[in-house]
Write a structure and sequence with these properties.
The structure holds two protein chains of two kinds.
Chain A (H helix, E strand, L loop, with lengths): L1 H7 L3 E8 L9 H14 L12 E5 L11 H7 L8 E4 L5 H14 L5 E8 L6 H8 L15 H15 L4 H16 L12 H5 L3 E3 L2 E2 L9 E9 H7 L4 E10 L14 H14 L8 E3 L5 H10 L8 H6 L11 E2 L4 H4 L7 H13 L14 E8 L4 E8 L4
Parallel strand pairs in A: 2-3, 2-4, 9-10, 9-11
Antiparallel strand pairs in A: 1-7, 1-8, 4-7, 5-6, 8-12, 11-12
Helix pairs in contact in A: 4-14, 7-11
Chain B lengths: L1 E5 L2 E5 L3 E5 L2 E3 L2 E3 L6 H12 L8 E2 L6 H8 L14 E5 L4 E5 L14 E2 L2 H15 L12 H6 L1 H6 L1 E5 L2 E3 L16 E2 L3 E10 L12 H4 L2 E8 L4 E5 L13 E12 L2 E10 L3
Parallel strand pairs in B: 4-9, 6-7
Antiparallel strand pairs in B: 1-2, 2-3, 3-8, 4-5, 7-8, 10-11, 10-12, 13-14, 13-16, 14-15, 16-17
Helix pairs in contact in B: 1-2
The chains are: A alpha/beta, B alpha+beta.
């Protein structure tokens, strides 16, 4: 009975986290992953031996088809983790958000003490044709794809409908873009490190009406890696662990047309609610949120679905600059988000954890540091909302 | 004889035959639109005739996709080897004109007033693009829908066959771990609805299977419809039209080419404004 009680009470901490710079990366798969792993391992300031890793979970959509089978084993081989049980986790753009959740569950189950979670994607070495192929494989192929939809189109349908249903316009999306470019300009690991004016963002090349180039995240290469540990192990690995206070995940209809509403993501709402409940926290308690802004409309919806803004008020939230670092109640995408930091599909989820980990430890660049950040949240979405993982983190254990 | 616009085509309806013509002309000659061919005109001809007459069987010549015609129209395709003569014949023309006629009917192809002049370079470019798409060496650069997978879903794709669920019609059809969703039989949905949202993807952002034609068409346009019978669906907008869309605008669904891959044309329903 005592053993059972101890098993239930295991808490999980992030003790190390690192990533490559996102962008058009010179390194290939193995080199990028090794760099991210090295960055994560070296961030552990206490006792750590890579041979002590019990399990590993690595998220990736597909590497552009370069290594579809046994992907994860290839990567652990090139990061000094030979022999570690490892698998690839695939949930489209939410792959490493779910890899992180799986890692967390492995420790919570009592079967592992130290677990690596990460993600990786390499897209910029592909021809434009092949790139568009891989960027469009995560919708409902049989019905959405044959209706001409890739994700810019899917999110464009959501945006136009949102403008129709609520007091919102494309200008609100432009505010999201300007904010995230501002944050990204301060992040040396971001894909796009430059600000953009409102006027420029408002008049970008039309990708999928009403979404312009400045509403869309770039196609990025990159890798990210985090190390999780059980409480009794974490203590000797670092004095400043970041605790996983809550984990929630959910799924929804894959195709947009099968959902009752296309102006909210049910999977986000469910995953967020579960994570908040587990953490015993409310949206107002969150100081920093890394949300899945693959397109600017996605951030507007996320701020509503995660409870930072009331339904239909996400546009106003953006318009009023409430997500700007140290300006509103919650800093939204202080890293620059997918829009500016970049979106290497499989790496994005754990890349968000890297940002929150550093923010809560006060380790980001001073201009980007969210003051007195105690609680952070990550929100990782697969496709147009078919899968979602939300995690809540705290400097304090409870 | 009555003439009308039907599913984006010109129809001449007579007692013993139906003539369907493309509205597009190149000089004096009727030519197909960007996503039309003899098969799509044949579907329109049969569906128009079915408003007036039952069709027991129809003879489909080479050059028309008999499976698509049969599935889209729910008509029996005449088997030359095992059956007596067909009740109706589909007749091809050298132009973009199709005739559905009773055998031996005296057919007169009238000159219709509507003629939308097409640009010759555009027409040639579209034909070339389709020719390249149809090449058997043109393999998947897009999310892959195999021929078998396409055929499995051909009936819902071409004729909106759905299911009866607990809360009304269900489309596209679903599977369930609790047994056949389709326990109450196939339900054919009405091929029209109203606009919930729409977008036009730039050519650079279009799915790669459309990459040969999207630059010629100025991108790919998709509409999300709430079908009259309830379910929602996404559909390409008919390629050779540039409608002014608005929320709640009524649209109809018509059979057109979607794309070709590995020598095989995938047909499906596309949306066009009801008033057009």
């Amino acid at each position: 009975m005592l053993a059972l009680v101890a098993w239930v009470m295991v808490d999980v901490a992030v003790v190390g986290a690192g990533q490559t710079r996102y962008g058009n990366h010179a390194l290939g798969l193995k080199g990028m992953w090794a760099e991210a792993a090295r960055s994560a391992f070296s961030s552990i300031d206490g006792d750590f031996d890579v041979k002590s890793v019990d399990e590993a979970y690595i998220g990736s959509l597909a590497f552009g088809g370069a290594q579809l089978g046994n992907t994860a084993a290839l990567l652990t081989e090139h990061s000094d983790m030979e022999g570690v049980p490892v698998r690839r986790v695939e949930n489209a753009c939410a792959s490493s958000g779910f890899a992180f959740r799986d890692a967390w569950m492995a420790i919570k189950s009592g079967q592992a003490d130290i677990v690596v979670a990460g993600g990786i994607e390499k897209m910029n070495d592909l021809t434009p044709e092949r790139r568009r192929y891989w960027l469009g494989v995560s919708g409902d192929t049989e019905w959405e794809r044959l209706a001409g939809l890739t994700f810019p189109g899917t999110y464009a349908l959501m945006a136009r409908r949102y403008f129709h249903e609520f007091d919102a316009s494309h200008d609100d999306l432009v505010h999201v873009s300007v904010k995230n470019h501002l944050h990204g300009s301060l992040n040396p690991l971001a894909h796009i490190q430059k600000e953009v004016s409102f006027e420029k963002a408002a008049s970008g090349f039309m990708v999928a009406d009403p979404l312009t180039l400045y509403d869309c995240c770039p196609t990025s290469d990159g890798a990210s890696c985090v190390v999780l540990a059980a409480d009794h192990v974490a203590k000797r690995m670092t004095d400043t662990p970041v605790w996983v206070r809550g984990s929630g995940a959910a799924s929804d209809h894959l195709a947009l047309h099968d959902r009752p509403s296309i102006t909210q993501l049910k999977a986000t709402q469910t995953a967020g609610r579960k994570a908040y409940e587990m953490a015993n926290l409310k949206p107002r308690d969150i100081d920093i949120a890394e949300v899945h802004d693959c397109f600017t409309i996605a951030e507007v919806l996320a701020t509503e679905d995660l409870g930072f803004a009331e339904r239909g008020h996400g546009g106003r939230f953006a318009r009023e600059g409430q997500g700007v670092i140290n300006q509103g109640s919650v800093a939204v995408n202080a890293s620059g988000g997918l829009k500016s930091k970049g979106h290497p599909l499989g790496a994005t989820g754990t890349g968000q954890v890297v940002e929150v980990f550093k923010q809560l430890r006060g380790q980001v660049e001073s201009q980007r540091q969210v003051k007195d950040a105690e609680v952070g949240l990550t929100h990782n979405v697969g496709g147009s909302g078919a899968t979602c993982a939300v995690h809540v983190f705290g400097r304090d254990r409870t | 004889m009555t003439e009308e616009v039907w599913m984006g085509y010109l129809v001449d309806h007579c007692t013993n035959y139906t003539v369907v013509q493309s509205p597009f002309v190149l000089g004096e000659e009727r030519v197909f639109g960007a996503d039309s061919d003899a098969t799509t005109l044949s579907v329109a001809a049969i569906l128009h005739r079915l408003q007036h007459d039952a069709i027991a069987s129809v003879a489909v010549p080479d050059g028309i996709d008999a499976d698509t015609v049969s599935t889209a129209c729910n008509v029996h395709v005449w088997d030359e080897e095992s059956e007596a003569g067909p009740e109706w014949d589909l007749l091809l023309s050298e132009e973009a004109i199709i005739v559905l006629a009773r055998p031996g009917a005296d057919v007169e192809i009238s000159v219709m007033d509507i003629a939308v002049e097409v640009d010759r370079p555009f027409n040639e470019a579209i034909l070339t693009a389709w020719e390249m798409e149809l090449n058997t060496l043109h393999v998947s650069q897009g999310a892959y829908v195999s021929q078998a997978q396409y055929v499995e879903a051909a009936s819902p794709r071409l004729s909106l066959s759905g299911q009866i669920g607990a809360n009304g019609p269900v489309w596209p059809p679903r599977y369930s771990a609790h047994g056949p969703v389709n326990g109450n039989g196939v339900h054919k949905l009405t091929p029209n609805g109203h606009v919930l949202s729409w977008t036009t993807l730039s050519a650079a952002g279009s799915p790669s299977e459309f990459s040969l034609r999207a630059p010629l068409l100025g991108g790919v346009s998709t509409v999300l419809l709430e079908l009259t019978d309830g379910p929602n669906g996404v559909f390409l907008i008919v390629d050779d039209e540039e409608p002014e869309l608005s929320m709640d605008a009524p649209m109809e669904l018509v059979v057109r080419r979607i794309y070709a891959q590995e020598g095989f044309i995938r047909y499906g329903l596309k949306a066009r404004p009801m008033s057009a």
